[in-house]
């Protein structure tokens, strides 16, 4: 049974701060916050819903920082934002009706593939290159698809968005990370709305963790701007391998 104490609130605040820092750079912060919320005594659905509330803080402040630094053009992202939001909303509805076992089996290997791509690809750099998809096609394919995945399942969403921006939109890594965080904010908001409707959010705890997420995300975002590919690439690789091992351990151990 869940009971919020001062000690527990401080622990989860610290976890959220660290998760926000990592998430703003490489994604994967949910690997820390969701297990922590379940350790605190929340049932799985409430842990996922509360996690979405606190994640909104981190993704919002990271996005705000990137916009202020001129790394994101909001006007050009409107269609992708809308598609990511709609995708996440649909995914959140579907997850309540469809068996996710197949996705659980495939997901660790997908995330591992992302880590290998970032580790071995010579195309990863700070420089933009030729885009493969137009902004409109990107919105209706990558943004919508990853948004659907985030609402349906979630782990590694930031990494999937970043990979899409690098490989399909032709963005440099720092720019891709900034835009990935913006779309991740849209998907977090969409999922949160449906979790709130379902009564699966512990609001007070979520708000406490949201403050920690916001601080961590702001600090991490500054490193993206100042250090760029030097810090993003190795952290994406580490988090991708870490997520894969965590998911495989959960399934087979």
Give structural attributes:
253 residues, globular, transmembrane helix, TM_pro_TauE-like, cell membrane, transport
Instruction: Tell me the strand percentage band.
Output: under 5%
Could you estimate the helical fraction of the residues in percent?
over 70%
Annotation field: number of helices: 10
Q: Gap between N and C termini, in Å? A: 26 Å
Structural class: mainly alpha
Number of E-state strands: 0
Family: Belongs to the 4-toluene sulfonate uptake permease (TSUP) (TC 2.A.102) family.
Transmembrane segments: 48-67, 79-96, 102-120, 132-152, 158-177, 189-211, 231-249
InterPro entries: TM_pro_TauE-like (IPR002781), TSUP (IPR052017)
Subcellular location: Cell membrane
What does this structure look like?
The protein has ten helices and no strands. 77% of the residues lie in helices and 0% in strands. It has helices at residues 6-26, 30-39, 44-68, 78-94, 101-120, 135-152, 157-167, 173-197, 203-227, 229-252. It is mostly helical and 253 residues long. Helix 2 runs antiparallel to helix 3 (44-68) and helix 5 (101-120) runs antiparallel to helix 10. Belongs to the 4-toluene sulfonate uptake permease (TSUP) (TC 2.A.102) family. Keywords: Cell membrane, Membrane, Transmembrane, Transmembrane helix, Transport. InterPro entries: TM_pro_TauE-like (IPR002781), TSUP (IPR052017). It is a multi-pass membrane protein. The chain crosses the membrane at residues 48-67, 79-96, 102-120, 132-152, 158-177, 189-211, 231-249.
């Amino acid at each position: 049974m869940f009971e919020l104490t001062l000690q527990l609130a401080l622990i989860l605040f610290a976890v959220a701060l660290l998760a926000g820092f990592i998430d703003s750079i490489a994604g994967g912060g949910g690997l820390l916050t969701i297990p922590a919320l379940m350790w605190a005594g929340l049932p799985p659905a409430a842990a996922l819903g509360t996690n979405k509330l606190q994640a909104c803080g981190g993704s919002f402040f990271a996005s705000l920082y990137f916009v202020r630094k001129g790394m994101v053009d909001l006007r050009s992202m409107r269609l992708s934002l809308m598609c990511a939001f709609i995708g996440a909303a649909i995914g959140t509805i579907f997850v309540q009706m469809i068996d996710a076992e197949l996705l659980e089996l495939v997901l660790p290997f997908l995330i591992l593939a992302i880590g290998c791509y970032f580790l071995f690809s010579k195309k990863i750099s700070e420089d933009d290159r030729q885009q493969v998809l137009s902004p409109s096609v990107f919105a209706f394919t990558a943004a919508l698809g990853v948004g659907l995945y985030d609402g349906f399942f979630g782990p590694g969403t930031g990494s999937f968005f970043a990979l899409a921006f690098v490989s399909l939109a032709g963005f440099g890594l720092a720019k891709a990370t900034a835009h990935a965080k913006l779309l991740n904010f849209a998907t977090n908001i969409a999922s949160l709305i449906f979790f709130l409707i379902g009564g699966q959010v512990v609001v007070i705890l979520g708000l406490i963790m949201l403050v920690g997420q916001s601080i961590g995300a702001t600090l991490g975002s500054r490193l993206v701007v100042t250090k760029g590919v030097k810090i993003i690439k190795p952290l994406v690789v580490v988090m991708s391998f870490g997520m894969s091992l965590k998911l495989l351990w959960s399934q087979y151990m």
